[in-house]
Design brief:
By secondary structure, this protein is of the alpha+beta class. The chain has a single domain, classed as Roll (Ribosomal Protein L24e, Chain: T), CATH 2.30.170. About 25% of the residues lie in helices and about 40% in strands. It contains 2 helices and 4 strands, in the order ββββαα. Keywords: Ribonucleoprotein, Ribosomal protein.
Length: about 70
C-alpha cells in the first residue's frame, strides 16, 4: 500500500537534511500514518483506513460518515 493518507491525500515530501556545517543530504519526510478501524453505524460494520493524524482529527470533529460522503462525492 502507498504511503498516502486516504482522507487528506497527504504524501511524503522530499527535502534536505542540514547538518551543523550546513551539508545537505537528501531526506524523505513521511506523513504520520496510522492503520485504524472505524465503526460505521449506518452500515453496521467496521472499515479499515490508513490515515494521518490530521485525518483522525477531522473524523473526530465532523464524524466518519460525513467525511466518507465528501470523499465519495469529490
Amino acid at each position: 500500500m502507498s504511503k498516502q493518507c486516504q482522507i487528506t491525500k497527504k504524501k511524503p515530501m522530499f527535502g534536505n537534511n542540514r547538518s551543523h556545517a550546513m551539508n545537505a543530504t537528501k531526506k524523505k519526510f513521511s506523513p504520520n500514518l496510522q492503520n485504524h478501524k472505524f465503526w460505521i453505524p449506518s452500515k453496521k460494520k467496521f472499515i479499515k483506513l490508513k490515515i494521518s493524524m490530521q485525518g483522525m482529527r477531522m473524523i473526530d470533529k465532523k464524524g466518519i460518515e460525513t467525511i466518507l460522503k465528501n470523499i465519495n462525492k469529490g
